[in-house]
Amino acid sequence: MDITAGLEPEAKKLVEEHHAAVSRLPLTFLVHTLVDIRKWAALFAPEQKYFRALFDQLSMFDDSQFENVFGELTRFETKAGCDRVKSPDPMTARVELEDRLRVKGAYAEWRRQIDAIFEKLNPLVEARLFTPADLGPRLVVMIYGQGIAIERESLWKRFRDVALRIPVSLGQAQTTAPFLHELFTGHPWSLDGLVVPTLFQILSASKGFSPLDNWIVEAGDGLHTLCEQKPLAGLPRTAFGSHSQQNCCCESERASGTRIMA
What we know:
By secondary structure, the chain is α/β, with parallel strands linked by helices. About 50% of the residues lie in helices and about 5% in strands.
């Protein structure tokens, strides 16, 4: 099989640079990875960065580490007869391999094997992608109701060693809308109906920020509604104070019924 068949130039170069690691990968893992990077130019920049980190990590494995991650899948493929599939290119090989696994009744077990591999791989790849030095200052805000069934220590585990955690309290705010307004505008809820800019709007208009720098994941639409309001010209832009040069994580349990990560 020509493992670079159909690959765009940058993807082909990536595979060739890591040929030693690629050549010993289990066949099913190999062809699915090659198909994933086939249309390299269509991938988002973070996706390209992920695959570069993945190939870098694969090249770092010594024999014992490689066996620990891929050994079980290699033996599974031998038992399933995957080596009998002879295809000219990765795209065709993926289809024929999946067909063979289904005929053998082994597809579900193969999926379990792949999941087990990524449970071991992902922390290593993420460590390459998300080092504090690369990220720079970040602000993460998580808001959830007091009665939500959640283990807070697990929720914050990823940030524990790289960030400062600050509990958030906004006094007498008892409902979601006033709470979100004061938290993300820095102004009191009652301003005679005036609309002031949110932190997200200020950052979006700041030099050097792109649309990918601000994220809102929300169960509901309270924060989206707040951000969609158009602030009037000439109003004070913010009462947030100066930028911090340290990663910062804030949490609150005051906005009942809403969970937001920004």
